[in-house]
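Its record is quoted verbatim for completeness.
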Amino acid sequence: MFKTWIARTCAASVIGVAMPAMALAAGDPDAGYYKAQTCMGCHGTPGYENVYPTYKVPKLGGQHAEYIEVALRAYAATQRSHATMHANAVTLSDQDIADIAAYFSQAAKH
């Protein structure tokens, strides 16, 4: 319970700092399922590792929607550096991001 509170508090803090004038759109997990199919190529593969830089690709199922939204916006703005994530995130609308985040937040943890 306490960990959940901390995660939500941190996400809210990041959202408040990163996007003070932008309200988060309500996400539709059903629409997000279809929009997230590209994401599943890496994030849905058990044990998948990125070649360069080498690291395990995180599973997103069950992750907090707010965290996913903040992360995707940061990749799109190159505040987080990863060329593939930037290329994917920069094409997404605010609604796409909200939908994808809603889907992953309700998807089963892998």
Summary: The chain has six helices and two strands. Confidence is low (pLDDT under 50) at residues 13-22. The CA atoms of residues 28 and 99 lie 5 Å apart.
